[in-house]
Amino acid sequence: MTALAIAPPAEHTNGHRPPPFVIFSASTNKTHYNITAALGIGRVALETARYDPATGARQQFLRFFLTVGHAKLLTYLVLESRLIRNGWKFERFAGSVRGDTVISRALVLQFDDGDGKYQSYPFRIIIKEGPGETTKTGAITPKGSATDTVDTRVPFETFLESMIELRDWLRERQPRIEQQRWDEQMERYHRKQGRRE
User: Fold this and answer.
1) Buried/exposed code over 135-161 (b: 16+ C-beta within 10 A; e: otherwise)
2) Which of 36, 43, 129, 135 would bridge with 20, disulfide CB 3.0–4.6 Å?
3) What is the pLDDT of residue 16?
4) What is the spatial distance between Cα 117 and Cα 94, in angstroms, rounded to a whole number?
């Protein structure tokens, strides 16, 4: 499995909106695993894809957006907590609304070597997507079973490398993250003040 962390130079985008910055990328002949930046919405995205090894055609692609806080928690749990062993699991749920359609998503990160069967690829990255419903508080929960799932296994070292890259990138971007939080808080404050007036 090869690992890359490459972003296209701005001068190569021909004036178009550049693609998301790729914090980490790793591939086999069957699967692909990316972490990309989405700070415009206060997130980072974990992406998984499955390919046809014969043709190279992409068969499935799913993305899950983690909040910056959850991303920081994940890097801590993997790199510093010393909790990683068989059975370890990190789960998060989210979703989105597209017109009248509510979509729920689930992310499961799991350490599972299958009693030695998957010793070389013990980390599982599972992203699920399916119908959802909106709760009274605005959260999105699954409504029935997932309709699409990508289950990717990566080597221990590859997953650690991805978490190191993510941790270091978040630390480097912290000033921008704090500025964005401040701007959002001030925008909410001014909207509230405007309604009072």
Assistant:
1) eeeeebebeeebeebbebbbbeebbeb
2) 36
3) 58
4) 31
pLDDT in tens, 82-111: 888 899 999 999 998 888 899 999 999 999
Q: Measure the CA–CA gap between 59 and 49, rounded to whole angstroms.
A: 7
Who contacts 154 (Cβ-Cβ below 8 Å, separation ≥6)?
1, 26, 33, 121, 123, 125, 162
| pLDDT tens digits along 104-135 | 999 999 999 988 899 999 999 999 999 999 88
Sheet holding 31-38, edge to edge: 2-4, 22-27, 31-38, 43-51, 58-67
pLDDT of residue 88: 94
Distance CA 4, CA 10 (A): 18
How far is it between the farthest Cα atoms of the chain? Answer: 66
The amino acid at residue 62 is L
